[in-house]
Amino acid sequence: MVASEGFQSRIEIHLRMRPVNGVAVADYGLDHEEGTVEWVIPRQAAAGMHNHQREKYSFSFTGILGTESKQDEVFDSVAKKVVMGALDGYNGTIFAYGQTGSGKTYTITGGTERYVDRGLIPRALSLTFSEVAKRSEYTYQLHFSYMEIYNETGYDLLNPDHETKSLEDLPKVTMLEDEDNCFHLKNLSQHLATNEEEALNLLFVGDTNRMISATPMNLASSRSHCIFTVTVEARKAGEDTVRKSKLHLVDLAGSERVWKKGIDGQILKEAKYINLSLHYLEQVIIALQERSQGKPRHHIPYRNSMMTSVLRDSLGGNCLTVMIATVTVAQEQLEETISTCRFAQRVALVSNQVMLNEEVDPSMVIKRLKQEIKDLKEELHL
Ligand code: ADP
Ligand code: MG
């Protein structure tokens, strides 16, 4: 790796509010300039308080994408710089966090009906290939992978056997750790795509497989994480170095607290856990937050779950990371909305150390040396 100290960058947090049709919208104070939002929970007389007594919660964000925000706007303000960074050799991650139904999939992948509803992944692919075409002095190699993590088990969404085999019969994606503490994923296929259409097709195949595999698990689709990864390799003509970076686009499991059901299916009480791997994500974020506040904390528990292991660089490591907190503004969802905002405030304190991922490429050195020998031979008329 070329010596580089890199630069510190806080994880950016953006709030995206889903429009709610015909549902009473909660009372909230929004200040776009300041990036602040204030949720107000009206208190019930039944709770022993005066009728109009309210409780206020204020939160600050890097940016707020209100209910009227459009997909292209979200891409421009949140994702564009991360995609451009990945093409320049910087790791990037964009992840959506929020309760089920708050717009994570709509934001990351998009709506299925209309072109204008395309989400961040198709827009990122479009920008990537148009940018690559402009940079004629570089040779780019772009590989794509698409993984789903459910119950701490990884599945390759681009495994062609999805069509014929059930989920249990597919090889599981497993993690291998090398001597340098780097994780490698086994059984996760990497696909080369040379144009936007090929890459979009991979996304489509993965999304279809996600839907097929969701059927036996039924509710599982909201309990699984999906990570779409672009691995970028860029070589500049006449140079011996290669830039290698990764761009992760992540659609996390629903952040809602799980409610325990009784035998007759009635909801009994809130189980004390959130989706287990999101619980581990919280623990990693809390540890990183404490570290950023100068508390002596040497251990960050990445290894507790597959998702935090895979996203290790994205959280407190070498990566430009953006979180999109998705919320609905419906009154009855306010508790979850506030809990999403609270989590986002913690994430906002996490600092990453971003570095240019450039290294000497032996194959380029050999190529150059071979050319030099050839030139010399020609000069000497050998
Ligand atoms: P999640 O993935 O968080 O469970 P979805 O992305 O599936 O939620 O969104 C739930 C529903 O709301 C979908 O029908 C989706 O198309 C719609 N939706 C979400 N966000 C928006 C938005 N910003 N504008 C219009 N429709 C949206
Ligand atoms: Mg979803």
Automatic annotation (TrEMBL):
Listed GO MF terms: ATP binding; ATP hydrolysis activity; microtubule binding; microtubule motor activity
GO cellular component: cytoplasm; kinesin complex; microtubule
Keyword Cell inner membrane (UniProt): no
GO BP: any one term: microtubule-based movement
Record's keyword terms, sorted: ATP-binding, Coiled coil, Microtubule, Motor protein, Nucleotide-binding
Domain named Kinesin motor: residues: 10-350
UniProt keyword Calcium present: no
Binding residues annotated for ATP, in chain numbering: 98-105
Family classification: Belongs to the TRAFAC class myosin-kinesin ATPase superfamily. Kinesin family.
Name of the protein in its database record: Kinesin-like protein
Residue numbers of the full-length protein present here: 1 to 382 of 833
